[in-house]
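Quick start: read one record
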Amino acid sequence: MLLRARLVLTLVQPPLEDGAVLVSGNRIAGVGRWRDFSSSSRRQVHDLGEVILLPGLVNAHCHLDYTHLAGRIPPPQRFTDWLQRITQAKAEWRLTDYRQSWRSGAAMLLRTGTTTVGDIEAVTDLLPGVWRTTPLRVLSFLEMTGIRARRAPAALLREAREKIATLPAGRCRASLSPHAPYSTLPALLRQTAVLAEKRRWPVAIHVAESEEEFEMIRHRRGGLFHWLQHLGRDMRDCGLGSPVQLLERAGLLRSNLLAVHANYLAPGDASRLARQGVSVAHCPRSHAYFRHQPFPLRRLLRNGVNVCLGTDSLATVRRRLRQSVELNLFAEMRELAAREPWLRPGRILEMATRNAARALGLAGQVGELAPGAFADLIAIPSDAPRAAAAEAVVWHPGQICAGMIDGQWTKAPDAD
């Protein structure tokens, strides 16, 4: 089929006026101006009209499981308070609660333009069932902790590896996520690094998320240190450097690593991440919810780190009285643009598309409109001029008017 739009934003070349995208099967076969396509290629034409056609958004970090926790946990004074409250909230749920929450979150992402998501999966029994309920392209990172349950690292990793082996190959797939340096042991980090390198799997880990984590890992002090010490965690890996340096000692700082948050960095950490090709996922609304110190975006970009965007979960998004919230990458882009007005809209959009695709190991396959990439794309209504196309996307307030994943409509252009 051939899709025509007033503006086509490919992310790999300047915006195309009166542009077109040729889709063959589940891939993009060609991109150009409408007039450049011969009449023989116009057999199935969808003229989308006054829209910007662009690649589907790529959400680098999400917790679909926690969607129905929206508004249940007020912003805490301390990170440890939040950990205890979400642990208590999760203990009240059954498998059906997690399943409904996951599916609700996936529907939100579809409505608001995400076509690919890197999702942290804490409840692996949901897989592969929930995959079949959504057209989203999902990379499920299987979460591993082991501290509270006193699980051996080798057993945790074996369980995750065996789970991945049972899952069907296709649009959705699974990989590994040791939860965070504070909630895992060095042996699990080392063993994950070795296995992921051997299998060429991407790895996601929360790192340097809070000031309390930074204090625990670097200085052996603070509320998180004493809480986990009381729970019986071996604290000998603390006091030897920053959280990023801890990952470096474990061998995890590699190009297949997605470092989630990275809010608190020691001198030299940004260059460490850059040297090893590590990507960083920033979640602006979650960052605001916790009232963290300003995100070190300039430092990361100056060092050449691949920074991308994620939504995190709705458990860490502020919900005002009588106001609903949803998983929405447009909202994350708007939050980032408001907090970092020096950042060009085009660069923000890259963080939610091409940069996130690279972080998930999908560079050239999603997050751009180019021959050979998957036919994952969205359209938003807009009369913005060509020069302001990226800005119009970043500040788009509503839902998409058309969407496609793997060459199949998820929201047909003529649908209500």
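The chain is about 30% helix and 20% strand.
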